Each structure stands twice: as structure tokens, then as C-alpha cells.
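FORM 7B: Structural annotation worksheet

SECTION A. Query
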Amino acid sequence: MTNEKHNPPADLVGEAMIDAREASFALRLPYYWFSDQAMRKAKRIPHYEIGGLIRYRMSELTAWAQTATVREAPKEVE
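SECTION B. Predicted structure
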């Protein structure tokens, strides 16, 4: 996840990494959420820093988006 220093789980080894533009497009979320370090931290977006570049795994972003949506969804008024 964020700035992982250890080896990823075996099921993620073959998964392609994507950049901020691709993550933004795939999840239909603002680009700056993925490109800005402060927003990544504030939103707790799972990411990896590889050679100074920020990369994402789609499976982790999908799981993050589902839990983040549930937490940030407005409550219904009765």
C-alpha cells in the first residue's frame, strides 16, 4: 500500500501498475487526488513509489474506492 517497503502479496506480483492519469480515468475521480501528495495522504489512497514515480494497482484502488465511498456517503435524512 502506501510507500510499501516490503514485497507485495504473491497474487499482486503479476498485476500491472498504472499512473495517476490512468487511475483518475478508470475511477472517474479528480486527477489531482492521485497526482498530489497531500491529497493521496488525506484520502489514504494506496500507492507505491518506484524510482521516484508514483504507481497504483487497480485492484487496490477498486477496493479503496468501495470503502471510501461507503465512509463518505451522505446519510439519509428521515
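SECTION C. Observations
Residues 9 and 48 are 14 Å apart (CA to CA). The chain has a mean pLDDT of 84.

SECTION D. Sign-off
Analyst initials: ____
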